[in-house]
Queue: 2 jobs
Job 1
Amino acid sequence: MNLSWSHHPLTRRRTLAAATGLAAGALLPTGPALAAAAQYTNPVIWQDFADIDVMRVGDTYYASASTMHYSPGAPVLRSYDLVNWEIAGHAVPALDFGAKYDLNGARGYVRGIWASSLAYRPSNRTFYWLGQIDFARTYLYTATAVEGPWSRLTTISTPYYDAGLLVDTDDTLYVAYGNTTISVAQLSRDGRSQVRTQEVFRTPSSVGTLEGARFYKINGQYYIFLTRPANGQYILKSSSGPFGPYTMRQVLLDLRGPIPGGGVPHQGGLVRTQSGAWYYMAFVDAYPGGRMPALAPVTWTADGWPVVQLVDGAWGTTYPSPAVPTPPRQVTPMTGVDTFDGTSLKPRWEWNHNPDNTKWSVGNGLTLRTATVTHDLYWARNTLTHRIQGPTSTATVQLDHSAMRDGDRAGLALLRDSSAWIGLKRDGGATRVVTVTGLTMDGNWNTTGTGTEVASAPVSGGRVWLRANADIRPGAPRPGTFSYSTDGITFTRLGPAFSMGNDWRFFMGYRFALFNHATQALGGAVRVTRFEVSTP
């Protein structure tokens, strides 16, 4: 499978609006000396977290990622060693950017939170998230802790496409942004408005497209880190201030990545450890699962250019672990069991578009009341999603369906622009467990198929266990399989394997999804008492 962007005739911006230099670099030693050291393995997160912006505050590392149409948006990840990560919160509490993000008369698939920026301002001990929405305007959110609460500070009329936010050493806020034409904006002292903006670089035609800006000041020099989607990384350097002039060098191009069948690591950020070592955290295109973060050490040339450290001419599958202080605690796993205790959802969950908050609750399980009357899952509100853990993982759901009503559909999906699900159909007072495939969207994200039932079995009582196994390794056959149980012990396979799609244009990878929608009338409900993601 070739995921090089050279095979993608349109840039992301053009696609979504309409619907040679320094080679990477020095080799790391291999052999017994390296094997004896503590190591980490790439990808450091085998879940879909793309367009990473990474930073360190004290002894803690943070990263933010794209989430498109999922709500809440812009997850903030936390780590103490750059290798083990947890989801701490979301910088965008709700996608309140128009009715289409509520599935109200329109849909926001593949819109919403694209490549954005996360920064920390020491002067007021505040985190800043900045991103543009729909090429229309830029939003800036702030919080004093990444868990939140996050609140909107301002809206700026200039849409800072693929922005990188820099807090300069004199506390001035700058934004690098753009596609091919790269600009720098200066914000007001309070961050609420734009003071000036200026074009600082125009990408040579020999390079093509550059975007995905990350903005740094290192040793008095200004750097703008840029990606050539989806197979290269470049850097601009200025010795004359944030507005340039800038010179460009290639960091990597067509570099073999650490996931077999996956793409070139690109579009991420640079971060420095407490001991002064540098790392580059990028993502690897690895559909059907999505874009997976990978980490590599970086050194610098004498004249101030970064060099990615390679293993046998490629981005390493393993590297020596970063030298960092002993973590204060273990991070919260991104997989495992959730019984939906407490008063809120855990941050590993995101809704497909904004939910109707009157139609769900947690505590003693997750209750999903029907929120939409539709035969189309892509139009149904309150579908709750969870990233799939690679390379393979299994989601198992314990579901109380005793309060379903005729016409209701509830279950566990493998959700993307081509989807399938196992779940329950309640019709004429009888309940069946079914497997449905053939839920599809076209390239403009309009529904082209609402699904075909391919297997079914009668069930009695009010409780059932549903299971979906997903193999998200790139290549073929990318199977998803479904099974069910009436006792939680013995599971019965239901229906043929579903081949998950691996086209890049939807950007987000497949997710496990919990849903409950009506086809006749509202009023029914289901309760998820246990959800578990396990790996082999």
Job 2
Amino acid sequence: MSHEHVSYLELLARGAATEAYDRPVLLARASGAGPEALAGLEQAKQLALRVRAELEGRRRREAELSALFATAHDLAGLRDLDAVLRAIVQRARALLGTEVAYLSLNDPAAGDTYMRVTEGSVSARFQQLRLGMGEGLGGLVAQTARPYVTDDYFDDARFQHTRTIDTAVRDEGLVAILGVPLSLGSQVIGVLFAADRRARVFGREQVALLGSFAAHAAVAIDTANLLAETRSALAELERANDIIREHSAVIERASEVHDRLSELVLHGGGVQDVAEAVSEVLGGTVEFTEEGAGTARHAGGHAVRDGDDWVAAVSAGGETLGALVLHGQPDLDPVDQRTLERAALVTSLLLLARRSAAEAEQRVRGDLLDDLLDAPDRDRGLLRERAARLRADSEAPHVVLAARIDRASDGPADTDTDAGGRESADRQRLWSAATHLAATRRGLASARDGGTVLLLPLGPGESAADLARQTARGLGGTLREPVTVGASAAVRAPLDHPDLVGLAYEEARRCLDALRLLHRSGQGAAAEDLGFLGLLLADGRDIDGFVDRTVGQVVAYDRRRGTDLVRTLDAYFASGMSPARTKDALHVHVNTVAQRLDRVGRLLGPDWQSPARALEIQLALRLHALSDAVAGR
């Protein structure tokens, strides 16, 4: 083998460029080789170039197969569709040696195609490009499902050029473009592109290679879509299972509370037992309240939300008995709402049963009160024995209260029958509410004179006026009607002095009539609340009490400080409420009178000179002076 032939083998071994294969021929010609030797070298050169081309092709095919194998490997472990598509575009760009590669997908809803992945792109306009079906090279590929290639895009008339597409391609600087379809069966879902910023020719092998990558990309997209659908179906199935489990748990809770409520009713359970059972089942805190129905009154028996609580009214026969309030469960399942409503119904039944028993007892209590009012000469020992059986408080001071519903007239269309029926129903409702109140306060109640009379013990620090106001509010709230209540002065040990009970009732009746005449319906008051009018109404004629309530603070101030406020008030009223004439009557400076009257105002309140207050103060001053004279002071 000649030296020149060895040179060609060395060039092949090191993979030299094509230009290097001319060097052995040039050297031989320069050294004066003959024509036969030169012809032999030229033949060896051509053979070496063919071998080199074959090696280059094999290396390229190996690189392509390696890239395709890597792409298939990516698809086998598909986790992120965008990452797989990006890898396909990057490999296509590298193997074809193009400056740019990109992939677009069809949008069936919008009827166009859009850029999904780009590699080597520098134009934001190009990366956000959308083109209609049939527009541009990509639109034509998507429409015909065939590869298209152009050496010079702007001089190629086969494509439908649009301003938007041409502007984006020009911004990117592209000239030569190859596009192959992404197909799933007969459906084209997008296009894979390779492009250069200079004119070039894409060979059939390059078209076939890009087509192979496009097939892999289509498989990746199809696989990702199937995975997404599978995940979505699994998620829907999990949600359905969660809903089934939740509903099953709710139904189990409803069944449990039904069984427990039934057992409570059968074994004589109470309202608190119902609340505790429902609290345990619903996972919150349920309480019964007599004044918490609120908007639930108008909900037709349904539980309603009140802030973070749920409220179910407890009612029967149009009367609201209270409410069940659930705390700690703002998002209550509809089935659990029905459970709370069922518990409210059971509570109303228990309350009605308790009320029926209480009303039977209260009839006995009413009989005892009737005997105190109508037959005060009954044996007092028997009266005490009957009171003990009823667990009535017989030691504390008591107040007699007269109560009546005061409703405005419904108008001239009311017939006597309607009015009579309504009054009868009002009396029954008032008696029912009053007997319940009397039982809770260890007192007595009875229906009398078109209204109700109550005998209730006074609590520590409580006055007859306080008890009257509380009773008016309590009965009015229960009945949702204005109830007016008049109270007597306190009666000590009424069972020891039954004759005083009847007198106290008459005083309470007079106080009730006075309230209605004074247009104070729906209020509660005792004689002490009515000023000198109360003094006239009271049987005991509590003069000292009236004086003390009216000017007692002024009298006490004089006694403590040795001042003359009472005498100054007498002179002030005697002088026609004139400070100038008052200072003459007292022989003091007018400033002294002003200072004393200012002190009186601070003791009696800013309205002490109003006509009504002034009249009461003058009467109290006269009664105080009369009391001092009688006492010899």
